[in-house]
Amino acid sequence: MTHKNPQISIILPTYNESQNIVNILKSIHANIPKGIYAETIIVDDNSPDGTGKIVEEYISNFKKIAENTIAIIHRTAKNGLSSAILNGIQNAKGETIVVMDSDFSHPPQVLPKMIEAFKQYQCDLVVASRYITGGKIHGWTTKRKLMSKAATIIAKQGLGVKTKDPMSGFFAFKKNIIKGLNFDALGYKILLEILVKTKGINIKEIPYTFENRQLGSSKLDSSTIIDYFKSVWKLYKNGKTKTINEKRNSVHFLSKAARFFTVGASGFVVNYIISMILTSNLIEMWYLHANIFGIVASISTNFTLNKIWTFEDKDFSRKKTLTQYGKFGLFSSLGALVQLGMVFWLVDSYDIAYPLALISAIGVAAFSNFILNKKLTFKEKLWN
Ligand code: GDD
Ligand code: MN
Fold this sequence. Notes:
By secondary structure, the protein is α/β, with parallel strands linked by helices. It folds into 2 domains: 8-211, Spore Coat Polysaccharide Biosynthesis Protein SpsA, Chain A; 242-377, no CATH class. It is built from 12 helices and 9 strands. Helix 5 runs parallel beside helix 7. It is elongated, with a radius of gyration of 29 Å. The chain starts with 7 loop residues before the first strand and ends in a 7-residue tail after the last helix. The mean pLDDT is 91. Guanosine-5'-diphosphate-alpha-D-mannose (GDD) binds next to strand 1, strand 2 and helix 3.
């Protein structure tokens, strides 16, 4: 049997899991459904507590008793969870890959359900989920629960991920869905990368109860959290450019104009508040100077909001952003001049009431501003 390729590869990253590794291996093998040939790949980062050695010993005994196989990849240093998992995947021979922790947080009893789900739901990716009905977390502090929730919300809102538990470390997938993809392998969030980078795959979530580890300690630290933000930002900028471009065309001229005017209104508020604060008793700046600060501040906030929101431009390279900012400032000043001239012209030569003249002038200035920035600052076609 062993000369055949395994159907399933279970990837088991370890760092200082000497107290868990043997029991988790036993438990995993007890839970692999009969008739399925599985390989388990431990990826150990030279754990100081000797996890790697313990596995080597276990493997030499295991070979004599079991039909499934176990292999270990020894890496030289602690290089992070995602990269360990990727390393395991590269060496996996199975058509289906399962990823799980080695500290019993992911109960091996869920494995049969995950494997069954591929057939039952015709899916390519099965996520064991804490955040769907029936899913739970046992033994986490409120702080850790909140952190996990916050990370989940960021992933869903920021990256448009639909999966309820995109932070899950417990999942299984058909290896072919990641063919040709490149991964950043930062921190812990390999599933999130898979969710963002694959297109059109069928995903099924099944509930499970996450059990906080009884033995050993978590390796998640502040650098993991920083890595998380880095990888979300990277995914946001690169991974999603395609979908963003598709979305872009569907956001029409009018909705962009509406966004542009909304931003303009917010700029008015910024301008007003800054000018008021600077002239207040506290700072007592001369009102014209204060107003210059107000104008510069509102141009800056307007620019930023329009770049990110109105025109959905994710390219923040220094040179491009500065050039855009310059143009935006220029058009804003031009708009102000147009507005001033028009008010004067309407009131003086046509005797139109000041409020009406002002409103029309603001409208014309804002609209021409929108067109100029759309075409020249953010280099978009006029109608899309
Ligand atoms: N090889 C290797 N290298 N393994 C690592 C490394 C590493 O740098 N860091 C962690 N591991 C292993 C641990 O030994 C454990 O088996 C597994 O990866 C998970 O690490 P924990 O440190 O126990 O993670 P956790 O319990 O705090 O976080 C869990 O919940 C998160 C969701 O909120 C994990 O399941 C995460 O994957 C999950 O994202
Ligand atoms: Mn854990």
